Amino acid sequence: MPTDGATDDIERAADLLLRARHVVALTGAGLSVESGIPPFRGPGGLWTKHGEPPMNGYQRFLADPAQAWRERLAPSGPMRELWKTVQAAQPNPGHHALVQLEAIGVLGCVITQNIDNLHRAAGSRRVAEIHGNALLIRCIGCARRFQRDEIPLEDLPPRCPRCGGILKSDTVSFGEPIPPDVLAECFAESDQCDCMLVAGTSATVYPAAQFPLDVRQRGGALIEVNPYDTELTPYCAVSLRGPSGTVLPQLVTRILRVRGL
Ligand code: APR
Predict the structure, then answer these.
(1) Helix (H), strand (E), coil (C) string for the chain
(2) Each residue of 38-59: pLDDT tens digit?
(3) How far is the CA of 74 from the centre of ligand 1 (A)?
(4) Among this protein's residues, is 131 annotated catalytic?
(5) Whose Cα sits closest to atom 17 in ligand 1?
(6) To test the ligand 1 pocket, which listed residue (40, 176, 229, 232) has its Cβ within 8 A of the most ligand atoms?
(7) Mean pLDDT by groups of 10 residues along the chain of 261 residues
(8) Strand 195-199 relative to strand 145-147: parallel, antiparallel, unpaired?
(9) Whether the Cβ atoms of residue 108 and residue 23 lie closer than 8 Å to each other
(10) What pLDDT sits at residue 57?
């Protein structure tokens, strides 16, 4: 059971969410930790353990797309660890809580930095995947996306069935510009947002980290869900300290009670 202070925080957060006009959730790797996928930074982080990867992943892809695909299909080191956990992962109560908030009309959209498809797998409908989706393949020519199993991977790099362009995993590599369609969707949601639920992110990677700062700048409220302080903590109206798989369901319970549901 949460302590009195934590209960008060849950109540304050629920009140902010219920009074808001347009709520957006910004999520990161911490949301999927309870699904068995390690975070990148902080305790147990992949980059903490193995060091940050080179920032020129996209340039290396463009220089030799066939080799990049061979590495993608037979990953090593931290990427091998990441893909193994992503393939085995299932949504956790944190993902399901966001689905509930959307279903009762409190949450308008999820902007996620996660490439693990778990928000969609849980049933979230309005999801903007700013760093792409590991189950999708995208053409770097016409930007069209395909389900991974639609594309034969015998000849590398695979080619776009529509324009013949080079196909790449939809996940955004370091050094790659965020695809314009998803970036526009994120800004459209963030620009309308007056209350942002920032869950499981260190809020250090841009452009995603800009959204909560913009909301705060416009006088909106930030609610943080994270076991630890982050760079965003000083700007938050409420910081809910705990794992998102525990805290987000508590928030839903409180909101349903207030709504008499
Ligand atoms: N519940 C909620 N938050 C958690 C949990 C949990 N169970 N466990 C850890 N966290 C928090 C950590 O305290 C940390 O603040 O989740 C955050 C994860 O931060 P990062 O590992 O930096 O992940 P993220 O913010 O998503 O990284 C952004 O960086 O490396 C790139 O492309 C990668 O999308 C990623 C981006």
Answers:
(1) CCCHHHHHHHHHHHHHHHHCCCEEEEECHHHHHHHCCCCCCCCCCHHHHHCCCCCCHHHHHHHCHHHHHHHHHCCCHHHHHHHHHHHHCCCCHHHHHHHHHHHCCCEEEEEECCCCCHHHHHCCCCEEECCCCCCEEEECCCCCEEEHHHCCCCCCCCECCCCCCEEEECCCCCCCCCCHHHHHHHHHHHHHCCEEEEECCCCCCCCCCHHHHHHHHCCCEEEEECCCCCCCHHHCCEEECCCHHHHHHHHHHHHHHHCCC
(2) 999 988 999 999 999 889 999 9
(3) 25
(4) yes
(5) 201
(6) 40
(7) 76 98 98 97 92 93 97 90 95 98 98 98 98 98 97 97 97 96 98 98 97 98 97 97 98 96 84
(8) unpaired
(9) yes
(10) 94
pLDDT reported for residue 79 = 87
Atom of ligand 1 nearest to the CA of 204: 25
For ligand 1, mutation pick of 41, 55, 172 (most atoms within 8 Å of CB): 41
How far apart, in whole angstroms, are the C-alpha atoms of residue 203 and residue 222? 12
Ligand 1 center to residue 200 CA distance, Å? Answer: 5
